[in-house]
Amino acid sequence: MAKQEDLDEVRKRAENAGLPLKEGHNMVFGKGNPEASVMFIGEAPGEKEDIEGLPFVGSSGRELDKLLMSIGLSLNDIYIANILKYRPPENRNPSHDEICTHTPYLIEQVKIIKPRVIVTLGNFSTKFVLGGFSPDEMKRIEGITALHGKLKKIILGDRTFDVIPMYHPAAVLYNPRLRDELKADFAFLGKIIGRA
Ligand code: URA
User: Fold this and answer.
1) How much distance in Å is there from the Cα of 73 to the middle of ligand 1?
2) Which CATH superfamily is domain 2-192 in?
3) Domain ranges, ordered by start, for the chain
4) pLDDT tier, 1 (very low <50, low <70, confident <90, very high otherwise)
5) Fewer Cβ within 10 Å of end Cβ, the chain: N or C?
6) What is the pLDDT of residues 32-47, one digit of tens each?
7) How remote is the CA of residue 63 from the centroid of ligand 1, in Å?
8) Helical residues (DSSP H) of 71-158, grouped into ranges
9) CA 120, CA 83: separation in Å to the nearest integer?
10) 46 in ligand 1 pocket by Cβ < 6 Å?
């Protein structure tokens, strides 16, 4: 239970930090199993997530649930959090300042959970993680089209994490042709963690 307690403590600090975007919104901190060996990192909460205070509970979440099921995983096998802890207006892209102020809490979550594999969903999360968890290094990282489905490694603190970038599940909703690629990347994840 220690990891859950540590996460609760980080959550409390994040809630009291007066983060940008907090005004009028619920915090979306994370969900899943703190003992999981796979951690997913998305971009930012949408409308449904803001209402429920939980990540990936709207249409992207339904897509993600199906993909997890396709390799025999459930919420109990993973932990999931976002780059931003609050919903940006009209779901616009996260700003540099928002990324700088919100991600220290995400980094704490990664250090507590210590997943074997980090799956980054979409461009922002991929660039942040592969840029060494540094907002300032994000611009030197290639886009998701070039990186998706490739196994990368990144060091954070005294640990090396496997990273698999993937398209954001929302991208599939706009461009159904990406669904096969996302499914193939999930199958690859299944292989890496010994599920498929
Ligand atoms: N998209 C994300 O990146 N995160 C969520 O929590 C929901 C949609």
Assistant:
1) 19
2) Uracil-DNA glycosylase-like domain (3.40.470.10)
3) 2-192
4) low
5) N
6) 999 999 999 999 999 9
7) 11
8) 96-113, 123-130, 144-147
9) 10
10) yes
